Structures are given as structure tokens and as C-alpha cells.
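Action item from last week, closing it out:
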Amino acid sequence: MNPFKFYLVTDTHYFEPSLGCEGKALDDYMKNEMYCLAESSRIVHATFDEIIKDTEIDTVIIPGDLSKDGEKQSHVGFVKELNRLKDAGKKVYVITAGHDYNDNPRGYVGENYVPVEPTTFEELYGLYYDFGLSEALAVDKQTHSYVAQVAKDVRMIAFNCDSNRETKGSIDDRLLEWAKVQIDKAKADGCFVFCINHYPIIPSVPVFDLIGDAHIKDWRKVASFLADNGVNLALTGHMHIQSINEFYSESGNKFVDICTSVLVGSPGKYRKITIEDEATVTAESINVPEFDWDKGGRTTEEYFDDRAVWAAPNRIRRALSGDSFFKRFATKIFNTNTFAQLGRKLLIRVPKEIKDKKFCGFTGELARDIFKGDQPYTEGTPVYTVIARFLKRFRPILNIASKKLAKDGIKPDLTDMLLNTIGNNKGWSDNNATIKLK
């Protein structure tokens, strides 16, 4: 097969600005959001401008969460952007996801949340028919999953794991059996097969394995099924993170999941993917370009990162809100204590490089750096050292938690999971890498 190159863009969360995106209601909502809402249409437009400039690559793939929250007019606006790509000669393939249909979407006007026209899941088929479904070789009508011939010797299975609110984030046995038929047909036709899915199939970082909504349900089963049937590559989104992970089935077959960040906030990346041949794929990450917005003299990356560092601690404060003594006590410590102060309370020695850093500010930096991929807090760094010491101090509590989180008699090693979440020890980059599929 010839190398196949395409752009991969995920989680555009496009919001139509005419629906209302200013005032106190928006400000209150955005206190806890790490990505941008009011700016999203400008970001999408600027990114698509850059893709249009590339006359070599003619394919764009977008695996879900196209709109903010299923606003009908957001879909109308986003389809206009997709048509700009098509008019420039690009082939565009999308799937939809949970943020693309909603019974109660809203705009933000002054102090009020204003109801706006919603979109049903059934309507998405027609809205995005021209972007993959119209040239599908096969369609699963129940989920809007489809198969497309995206290059001469390359076939793509576009799984839609978010077709039902009650079973969101799942690729069930029925859909796998449908996929098996399509895989066998593709192999018989001499095609390389890869898949796209909104949810990561492999958890992006180890601790996400403990969070049900952070990966596909029964992910080991799904990954093994695909790998054992000759599909070794998935391209995913949903978690707004840069990650590249591998998994081996019990039969020894390799499966690779390339998850790409949200487009409209930190880390603000999209990818250029090259499937070199049946055994090799290359992923190159590209920064979202500068876009038309008053960013206060900051670059796009700085603007995105500042929002992430500011919003992440607010999420923790929201989780700690309440009138109980414990929550009030925890909130005070979170907001005011430095690492040195926490260390003294817990009899833990803190490296001098970070002793004056406030814990609340650090959580924002940590969130930013985890989602950027290539997490920097590896063994020997001050942050790794102090977190390892904190985890050792809380080992009895972690042991109790491990027992409660055990599945099939297997207890997770929470210390190992957490340390390998803050530091990339995989041996390759989450952002730019050449990966062997077999």
C-alpha cells in the first residue's frame, strides 16, 4: 500500500456565537471549563484555514463532539466550516458523539442561561450525511457507525459509541459482530483497516482506567477483539488529552490508540497522521494557529494554558464545596497551603525547589501538563519525589481504596498508577512518534 496521510482533528466543540456567549452567565459557567466557548468558532475557522493551505493532504477526519452541546445552530455553523474544507478539495469524514445531541442546550445572555433549539440524535444523520455517510460502504443504522474507503488500499471503520445516552461510551457485542463482517470484507479486498471512535479505547493515562467515562466500556475486550481480527490502530478523542498507548491481547496481538486533544483549549493540538504501511504509523502534532481574538498579548498556546491552569483548581474547589467540617478544612488547606506547609503537617520532607509553591496553583499546572502529554514529572524530578513521599504517607488509605476498586480479584496499584500518570515512562512521545503496529 502507498502511504496515506490525513489530518486528525478532535473535539471541536463548536458554539454558534449568535446564540449568546457573553455576560455573567457565561463567566460563571467558564470558571470550571478548561476549554474555550466564546472563541470556539474563531479557533475552528483559523485551524481549517491552515488545513486548506496544505495542497498535499486531501483528507480530514474528525471523531466526535463537533458542537458544544447539541445546539442546532452550532451544527449549522459547523457544517458551513466543513463545507469550506470540501470546497477546497478535502474529503471529510466525521462521527458524532454525546455533545452533539441534547434536549436542553443553552445560550449565555447577560445573567441568564437561555434555552436554544436542540438537536436529536436522529437528526445528526442528515446533518452530517455528506461527511462520510454518503460514501459509506456499509452503515449500522442504529448507531450511525459506518465503513469508508478512505484511500486506495485503506478502509476505515467509524464507530459511534455515543448513540444512546443509557449506553454511551460502549461498543457492544452486536456492533462488534457488525464490525467483524466489515473487517473480513476489507481483508478479502486487500485493504489495511483502522478505526476511529470518540472515546479512547485504551485509557489515556493509567489513572483514567479507574474512571468509567474516560474510556470505552470493557476496553480490554474491545481492544483484544479488534487486535485479534487485524485492526491494530484506533484514533480517538473525548478526554482532551494528547496520548499514544499500546495494548497486547492474550493472543499477543498489538493494539495502538492515538488520542488527540481538544481543539479549542489546552493543549490545543491537531495531528497529521501518516499510515506508512500495514506495520507503521507516524503521528505529528500541530499547534492550533493564532486566531482572531483579544488574547491580551499572549500567544494561542499561552492563552489556552492560562485558562487550564486557572480552571482546574476551580473544579477541585467545586468538588470540595459544602458545609461539612471536613470540606471547609480541606478547602482552607487547598487554597492557602504551600508544599512546605503541607509537608510539615504530614512530616514529609519537601524538595527546596518547590517548597514555596502553593498547592492550589500546582494542581492547575499538573492538570495542564498531564493533558499536554509527555508528562514531565518523572522519577528524580522534585514533583515526582514529593508526590511519591505523599503517597507513601497515605499508603494505608491507598491500600483500603485498592481493595474497594478491585475487579475480578485484581487490585490496582494506585501508587504506580498515579506516578505513571504524572510522568511519561513509556519510551515514546505522546505528541510526535513513529509507532510500530505489529
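Closing note: The chain has a mean pLDDT of 96.
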